[in-house]
Design brief:
The structure is a single chain. Helices cover 74% and strands 1% of the residues. It has helices spanning 10-36, 45-67, 76-96, 109-138, 143-150, 153-159, 161-169, 180-201, 221-236, 242-246, 249-269, 272-277, 284-309, 311-335, 338-352, 354-366, 372-399, 405-429, 432-445; strands at 99-100, 105-106. Strands 1-2 form a two-stranded antiparallel ribbon. A hairpin with a 4-residue loop joins strand 1 (99-100) and strand 2 (105-106).
Length: 458
């Protein structure tokens, strides 16, 4: 007898969302806060920025390697826990190294820099890659909504930037060292709890704990288990090899699109203090709190649109928000008013979570479930290259204004408008029909049965 279909995520599904949230917060906090706020104590913005970029690129290389091994990796969850442990240990160690005010920097700056580099590599792989693979395996059809909730982590972390800066730097007023460990402690606790929950409560597939993919209880346990076993076998024999993925134009359209969103969100937010500070009368902390609220709303809403109307349409909407942000930012400079700039930051927040949502969603939506890890394992790292370069690009653009920070900000928002238009064009060119044609071609060549599994993807 079949069970009733459920529209919720199930208890285990919510646990997965929570773990993903903590991983994404860790990704933002332990990479961005040292560069944005504390870089002067760790060798300067140039060195810490370089460590962030190079560490991110190494993480990209690891993701590309793993994407080719998913068919042979017995447990993505166990691998995530191993790399997550490295990230947690490095995060604690970074925060515990004291700052010596007599020399104005970390007392063991070389060791800290090594730890920061390893943290960048490990938290990137754990927080936004391996946990997202689990999301695609648990919610292949509803991954848009799931990611929309989990990626609230990004605006949340950015919204806390101003409060963290105040907490960490306030001791300087009395001649004391920054309160680094105390200020990071809430995030360390959150990361630790999420990691422990991951170890105890998560599995690679929902069927392994008596749950159902997409929490679809219309399936019987027997059918669900059979589907899981077939998927594991199909991953081993997937027709979407590295060569096939890399020569698929839709993969490149999606990867570049996601990279553009990451430049327009992560890149801008790492320089949010300089951008907002260029306009007198704007309170940075209040603007960033507004970013947190708007980002949470936008992340969830874009995820719902993804599930309801289709990933391609949702991606066009997400990029349109970047174009609006760019126009508002240019208007702010033209008028000298702070309100349009604050509105521009709000619109950036609205698509901020989508920048990581769509790399998962597009991979799961337009390819088969067994092909998802391999496709995502290429799209995500390529887009992460853009993300790694984002802060540097925005810094250079701000610098074009010379002594006038406002003119540099104008260049940033003109840039956002232009790349936003490029992103919309890329998704208009994206064709699910072409992906199915390639899938049929590769399956026929491999002697596999052709079907219409990809025909109704919206």
């Amino acid at each position: 007898m079949q069970q009733k279909k459920s529209m919720g995520f199930g208890a285990r599904g919510w646990i997965l969302i929570f773990v993903m949230f903590t991983g994404m917060v860790s990704f933002m906090v332990f990479r961005n806060y040292p560069v944005n706020i504390l870089s002067d104590f760790y060798g300067g913005a140039t060195i810490t920025g370089m460590l962030l970029t190079v560490g991110s690129i190494v993480g990209v290389v690891i993701q590309l390697i793993l994407s080719r091994l998913f068919g042979r990796i017995k447990s993505v969850k166990r691998l995530a826990c191993f790399i997550g442990l490295i990230a947690i240990v490095c995060a604690y160690a970074m925060c515990l190294i004291p700052i010596d005010m007599s020399i104005g920097q970390c007392s063991m700056v070389g060791l800290w820099q090594v730890l920061f580099f390893i943290e960048n590599v490990s938290v990137t792989t754990y927080g936004v890659f391996l946990l997202s693979v689990l999301a695609g395996q648990w919610f292949p059809r509803r991954k848009g909504t799931v990611m929309g909730i989990a990626t609230i982590a990004f605006p949340f972390a950015n919204g806390m930037t101003g409060l963290f800066a105040t907490s960490a730097m306030s001791p300087l007023a009395t001649g004391n060292a920054p309160a680094v460990f105390k200020s990071f402690l809430p995030f360390l606790i959150l990361a630790t709890v999420g990691f422990i929950v991951c170890i105890i409560a998560l599995t690679d597939y929902p069927e392994q704990v008596g749950a159902f993919r997409d929490n679809d209880k219309s399936l019987t346990p027997e059918v669900a288990k059979q589907m899981m076993e077939e998927e594991i076998e199909n991953k081993r024999t997937t027709v979407w090899t590295a060569g096939h993925i890399l020569t698929c134009r839709e993969m490149w359209f999606a990867a570049v699109y996601c990279g553009i969103l990451l430049i327009g969100s992560s890149g801008v937010m790492t320089q949010s203090s300089a951008i907002v500070g260029a306009f007198e009368g704007l309170n940075y902390t209040m603007v960033m709190l507004g970013v947190a609220v708007a980002g949470a709303i936008g992340s969830y809403t874009v995820g719902v649109l993804d599930t309801a109307f289709g990933t391609k349409r949702a991606m066009i909407i997400g990029m349109s928000l970047m174009i609006i942000a760019g126009i508002l930012g240019v208007a702010a400079v033209a008028t000298g008013a702070g309100a349009p700039l604050a509105a521009a930051m709000i619109f950036i927040a609205l698509y901020m979570g989508a920048s990581s949502n769509f790399s998962v969603s597009v991979s799961a939506q337009y390819w088969r479930r067994e092909d998802f890890p391999g496709v995502f394992g290429v799209i995500n790292p390529i887009s992460n290259i853009f993300e790694a370069a984002g802060p540097t690009i925005i810094i250079v653009l701000i610098g074009t204004g010379g002594a006038s920070a406002v003119m540099g900000v104008r260049t940033v928002f003109i840039f956002l408008t232009i790349i936003g238009v490029i992103g919309v064009v890329l998704m208009c060119l994206f064709s699910k029909k072409h992906i199915k044609e390639l899938d049929d071609k590769y399956r026929a060549a491999a002697g596999k049965t052709l079907d219409d599994a990809l025909a109704d993807r919206k």
